[in-house]
Specification:
This protein has one domain: RRM (RNA recognition motif) domain (Alpha-Beta Plaits, 2-Layer Sandwich), CATH 3.30.70. Helix content is 26%, strand content 37%. The protein has four helices and six strands. The strands form two sheets. Strands 1-2-6-3 form a four-stranded antiparallel sheet. The radius of gyration is 15 Å and the shape is globular.
């Protein structure tokens, strides 16, 4: 997988924006990506140094429309901590 396939999109929520001051960024990543692949993808795309990667699998919710019942897909979230002084410019305008 290349870097653009591993990193799906940035997660922009109130809680994830609070981590920007500490150099922690949150992304939705491919479900099969591991921490090493996520680290390499972030370093490749934004030319920064990653110090830590935390991941979690978010399970999809059950949904119901009338009699039919379905389920949203599971997805994976990664919280990436960067070296002091490194920043991702995409997020800088959001603060």
């Amino acid at each position: 997988m290349n870097g653009r396939e591993v990193i799906r999109r940035p997660l922009i929520t109130e809680k994830s924006m609070g981590g920007l001051r500490d150099g922690r960024y949150t992304f939705e990543v491919a479900l099969r990506a591991n921490k090493v692949e996520i680290r390499k993808a972030v370093e490749e795309i934004w030319s920064v140094r990653v110090t830590a990667v935390r991941t979690m699998i978010c399970h999809g919710k059950s949904r119901r429309v009338g009699r039919s019942e379905g389920r949203r897909p599971d997805w994976k979230k990664a919280m990436v901590t960067l070296r002091d002084g490194d920043r991702i410019e995409f997020f800088e305008g959001l603060l």
